[in-house]
Every structure is written in structure tokens, then in C-alpha cells.
Amino acid sequence: MPENNGAPEASGGIRVGDVSGTVVVGSNNTVSIVQGAPLRDPVKRRPISQLPRSAAEPLIGRAGDVRILREAVETRQLVQVWGASGVGKSALLRHLARELPRGPEGAAYVEAGGRTADDLAQAIFDISFDAPDYKPSLEVLKEHLKTLRLRIYLDDAGLDEKDLRRLFDMAEQSTFVFTSQQRSAVDGVHAIRLDGLTAPAATELVAALLPRALGPEEARIVPALCDAVDGNPLRLRRIALSAATGKGLPGIADLPELLPALLNRLGPQERDLLYLLGSLSGAELAARHLNELLGLPDADALAVGLVRHGLLLASETGYSCPPDVAECVLNVRKTVFPADRLCRALTTWVEAKDTTPDDIAAHFQALDAVVLRAERSGHAPLGAALARAASPKLALSRQFDAWGSLLGAGWSAARSAGDKDGEEFFLHEARTRRRALGRAAQTTALVLEAEVLWRELTALHAHSAGQQAAGAASAVTPPAHALTPPTHAVTPTHGAGGTHAFTHSTVPTPAPSAPAHASVPGHAARPVIDLSHASPQPHVAAHATGAHSAAPIPKRIDLSAHSSVTHSPHAAGTAPTAGHTGLSAAGAAGAKGGMSALALACALGAVAVLGVGAAVYANDQPNPSPAVASSSVSTSGFSDGTSSAPTVDPVCAAGIPDLMPEMRQFDTDASLASDELDSYNSAIEDYNSGLTSTAPDKSALLSDLNTAISDLQTVESTLQEAISQAQDSSVESDLNDMLTSVQQMESQYQTYANDPEGSVIDTSSQASALGSAAARLQTDCGE
Fold first, then answer.
1. Phi first, then psi: what are they for 469, rounded to 5°?
2. N or C: which end of the chain has fewer CB within 10 A?
3. Do 236 and 197 contact (CB within 8 A), yes or no?
4. Using CA atoms, how far apart are residues 119 and 125, in angstroms rounded to an integer?
5. 606 in Cβ contact with 617 (< 8 Å)
């Protein structure tokens, strides 16, 4: 077993935040929040040590790679080992973790597959500090990790560039050595590609795996076979198994059919083992699960043999099936392992007293996979029961993103089963989780709870083996409700205005003595943002696919039938009601006075994001609404009360408030340009009708338009800076959407300034998009 001084003993409760508060398991198997005693400061372990278990076999053919990596780790802070699946990255990383000198304060080996940056950060904290059952806030977590000087080894770190950089920055004094299949583009990472074995090393490996000596003729064949499989150790192991169970080494022409041939030569128990793990498409199970599900006395011994010959993969906590083996096995069986059996066995396991929260967290991908499989195969009640049983212990593991993923899968299964009590359970747990993360304001209404659970299920889909299992079972039709988009749009209570554009006005032909001038396209009226007919918000799926677009996206969850929570316009992602009322009045006045579409869009944006740390706009209001007055943000602590402010992306408080005065400045200047445009068109009409003899000068109009364009460029620059500093993917997506709208508006204004007579400005769609993005930003910033 690996060294591990970082796994706290389960005590039945988890302390949340950096002041007080405890998450406990109640009598109804529900996680809830209560107040607790003040927390003592976490104590750093000395030394810090979590290393992988010793390898069962020596590392063959990698002496040169070890030498290169040793030098890189000693001189670089961020080192990546990347290469194809099966090339031996994990084996090499385990060897490095055990053999290389440790960092100034120790070393930590973490299996990162399927885990998010925040869960990995929590895992590193748990390894490094003596703080049993403590879940620090994100800001406190960062402060602790920044003090560490470790060598951190991350195996299979499938994070995108932004999340990798965020994780590296959290532990900025530590050295990271990580593996993944694709080369990282993160600045500062020294990426080393791991290639296949050389022919001599391949011969040594095959010879070591055979129960007999390698014959002279076979020794001559191995280099050619090595070349055919690019020296991939996993495939070379299968070649050795073929020689051990057949008449000799296969020929190159036999390689395409080698895997099916090998499976046919296995015994029934070995094939059943592959069938079970292959049905989970990447998720792993522990040996005790294999024994229980297959009725075997020692599945571990069978699994070790299959690992040795490249048909299974082993981790520190269990076994999983390579994708090509899973596909081959399932094609032969024409079915998958029964979901009801998986549910019953795993439910018994999670409920056992000796099953710890960390055990649950180590197999969260299998839990996701089984719950989703159960729903899709007609066993939704069993899937919901499994998720419900696992939820409290998974919460206690402090892996909150893994917990959130399971809550989403469990809620979907409960809804498919018609289990109203189950739906309420998962909604309660989702609210508890969001409060514990400092996002209490995001769980106050039905529409937002639906959105929260949808995010939990989709934002982690690339990490979750549940989605891989759904792909393996794609022949099963998903439940009808899963195909239905949400229909819970909430209607704001503000006035609606029309959508209008700058247009050419028709003018009479003047007398021949007076040259005709076309009027510059003018406003027929001024638009007001209208969200009263907004469609269901599509941005949740967009956020989920932004980071991991390669993975399949689960069907969107619909909570429209759930009626236990009152609808709230604020929670729907719009500005507070009071803010809307003021904006509507201002909008009506603005329309009469010549305010432009873009000006009103920016005004809505300012109201929508008010409360994420800005006080500029609020201080200008003589009678601030309750929503404005209570909008300050604090990240110092946590409690269960609704007055506790959420912990948000720092950019919400540090960068976004700069937009407020910039938007108001644009409002003013755009209004002046609008008025100047009206004056110019009026002067053109007078000139064309002969009332005046001098053609009007449009220099003032162009000056005002250029001022408005300059204002937009300032807003654009602020948005770009905020995007570069954003840490939350949802916040970044919202800012990008706002930036796109602003850039499109700027382009229209610029085109209009260059050729007023030949252009039309219609910013109604951009204004609507900007307002929607600002409203989403409000939600994602914790308001």
C-alpha cells in the first residue's frame, strides 16, 4: 500500500470554511450544516509523504528517460511527461516518485484521473496538513498551498490549460511533475514526450513476461513487432501473452486480430472480469468489488495477471479496463454487465461501516457510471438509492466536485423514477454543497437549483466515467424527460420596449438650385432592453463544453415540474426587481431623450453585475434598494445564514467593478452622439427643403461617434483584462460573451462613423446578448 500520512480518520463530520460550521450526517442520511466550535489552524506535516506502492516489476528500457527527467525535475518547476495511451507514463511517474529526491518539505503522489483542479487542491492540502475533516474556503486553501515546497506528482492530469495553471499557481513554490496524453500549452511547462521502447528493450520486456526462454528465431522477430506497435509496452505485453498461450509470437499480419484471439484464450473467470470492468468504460473497481460481483475468492490474483499482460490497468486503489479491450469484450457479449447487480453490490459497500469517505472518493467515477447506467436501463430507483447512500460519505471526503457530479446523476435518476422524496434529497444536498462552497445565494430558487444540478452533471462530464458508460450503453434510449430542455424561464417585472435601429429616413428631393444631401440614418425611436420573453438560458451547456468539449454531454436536466421552491426573478439570472424597476423608468426617459440601444444595454449590465464587489454605482443612488444595500461580498468565513456573502471568483470583486463607471461614461457619450445625430438629420431636412442654404457640418457628429467608440474600446480593454484574471470557467465564459457583444457594437459604430450615409446601426440583438451575459455573470459571481 502507498505511504499516506494525509488521510484523516472519518469522524462523521466535516468542518467547512475558515471560521466555523460543520457538515454532519443526520438520521435521515442527509448532509446538513450546523454551527461548530472555532477551528484550530491546520498544522503542516513534517515531513510530508504520500508515495505510490512499490512496483511489482522492474522498469525496463527507461534508464535514459529517467536520467532526462531527473535533470528536468531538478532544474524546472513544471515538468510534463506526455505520450500515447499505454506507452508507460504512469509506470515511469511512479518510479520517479519513489526514486527521485523529495522536495524541501516532502513529496506527494496523487492519481488525478477524473478529478478537477479544486478537488486536486483539496487532496494536496489533506496530504500536507493535519486538519481532520476540514474543508477550507478557496481563498484559505490557496494561502495554505502557497506555503508548500513539495514535489507533487500528478498521474493522468486531464485538466485544461486554465485549470492546470490555476492549480500550479495555488502551490506556486512546489514542483509539479504530471502526465497526460496531450502536450500541455501552459507557459513554463517543460514537456517531455515519452516514446515507445527501443527494440532491445522490447525484447527484454517480452522475454521477462514469458514463462520460458525466448527462442533465437523469436528474438529476431521481436524488433519487427516492436516497430509495428511503435514500441508501446501495453501492446508488447499482449504480444508476450500470445506467445505464452499460443504456438509462438504472432506475425505482423496477425496484430489487428491479436486482441480478440487473446480474449478467446482466456478462462471464463478472466473473461467475466474483463466483461465487468469493460462495462464501466474506464471507471475502476477495487478487488473487493470484483469478488462480490463475480463471486470469486481472489479476483485480485486474476486481475494482477491481466495487468501483467496488458489487458487491465492497475491504480493505487483498483483496476480498470483499457478502452480497446472494453470495446472488444462488449462486442462479443452484445450486452453490458447488469446495472441492477452493480447498484445493489455498490450500495451494500457504501453503507458498510468499514467503507471510509476516502474509499468512496477513490471510486466516484464508478458510482457516477453505475447511477447513470441504472437510469438508462430501467433501474432508476436503484441508481437513485445508490447515489443517496453514497452522498454523505462522499461529502465527508472533501472532494466536493466529485460530490456535485454524483448529486447531479442521483437527482436525474430520482426524477426518472418519479421519486419526489429523492428529488428533494438531492436538491437539499446541492444547496448544502453550494453553501459550503460559499455560494449560498445561488441556491435560493427553483430555476437556479435546476441550473446548479445541471452544471454539476455537465461541467464534470469529461472527468466522469459515467458519461463513458453512457456511450458504451448508447443503444439504450434515454428517458424522455432527459430529452426535454428546461422550461422554467422567469419573467422579469420591468417594462418592455421595442427593438429599433438607426435607419435612413426618406427625404424629399430639393430644388435643383440646392444640392441634395442624404440624411444620416437616424433613430426612429430608442430601444429598451426587453427580457420579458427570454428563452430558457442556454449558457449552462456552453460553460460545460468550454473546458472539455471532446466528451459527450449529458441530456439537460429539467426541473420545471418541481414546485417546492418559489420562483424568484433574482435567482433566474436577471437583475433584482428593484433594479429593473429603476432601469425601466430610466429607459423610458432615455428613449424620449435620445438614448441609444447600446447605452441602455450597458446600463442593464451595470445593474446586473452590481453586488459582486462594486460600490461605485450603489454610492451614486440616493435610495439604494435592499438588493443593492446588501450586496457587499465577504470571503472571510462561512455560516448557514442567508446573510453570509458568497465566496466568488476574485475577479468579480477586483476587476468587474471597473466596468461600472466605464459603462456609465459610454451611456453619457452615446446619448450625446444620439442627440447630435438627431440634430444633424434635422439640419439635413432643413437644407434639403430649402429652409437653410448651408449644408450642415457633420464634424460634431463624427467627434461624438468617435468618443463613444473610444468608450467601447475602454470597456473592451477592461473585459479583456478581467478575462485574463478570471479563475472560474463560468465567469470567464460570461465575460467572453459580454466582450463579443461589445466588440460587435463597436464594429457597427466604427462602420457607421466611416460611412454614415451608407450604414445602418442596429444593436438590438447585441444589447440583448450583453444584458443576458451580464445577468449570467451576476449568478456566477454568487449574487
1. -65, -35
2. N
3. yes
4. 10
5. yes
Percent helix / strand / coil, the chain, rounded to 5: 55, 5, 40
Task: Provide the 3-class DSSP secondary structure of residue 78.
Answer: strand
Cell representation of residue 711: 468608450
**Do β-strands 151-155 and 106-111 pair in parallel, antiparallel, or remain unpaired?**
parallel
Q: What is the DSSP string of 657-700?
A: GGHHHHHHHHHHHHHHHHHHHHHHHHHHHHHHTTS-SSPPP-HH
Residue range 421-455, pLDDT digits in tens: 999 999 989 888 887 876 544 444 333 445 555 54
Q: Which three cell numbers stand for residue 61?
A: 528500457
Per the CB < 8 A criterion, the answer to whether 392 and 361 are in contact is no
In the Cβ-directed half-sphere of 741, how many Cα atoms lie within 13 Å?
23
Q: Are strands 13-16 and 22-25 parallel, antiparallel or unpaired?
A: antiparallel
34: number of Cβ within 10 Å = 12
Question: What are the grid coordinates assigned to 659, written together?
Answer: 466596468
Cα angle vertex 50, ends 390, 301, to 5°?
Answer: 65
The rounded distance, in Å, linking the Cα atoms of 476 and 474 is 5
Nine-digit cell at 352?
458498510
Q: In 10 A of CB 462, how many CB atoms?
A: 22
Q: What is the pLDDT of residue 783?
A: 54
Chain-centroid distance, C-alpha 437: 15
In sequence order, the β-bridge partners of residue 522 are 503
| pTM metric for this prediction | 0.60
- Gap between the Cα atoms of 643 and 649, Å rounded: 19
Q: b/e map of 143-157 (b: 16 or more CB within 10 Å)? A: ebbeebebbbbbbbb
Strand partners, 179: 81
What is the b/e burial string over 708-740, where b = at least 16 CB atoms within 10 angstroms of the residue's CB? bbebbebbbebbeebbeebbbbbbbbbbbbbbe
Q: What is the dihedral of CA 263, 267, 273, 274, to 10 degrees?
A: 0
Instruction: Give me 130's grid cell.
Output: 493535519
Which set of grid coordinates corresponds to residue 588?
A: 423610458
- Rounded CA gap, 163 and 169, in Å? 10
- Residues 140-179: tens digit of each pLDDT: 999 999 999 999 999 999 899 999 999 999 999 999 999 9
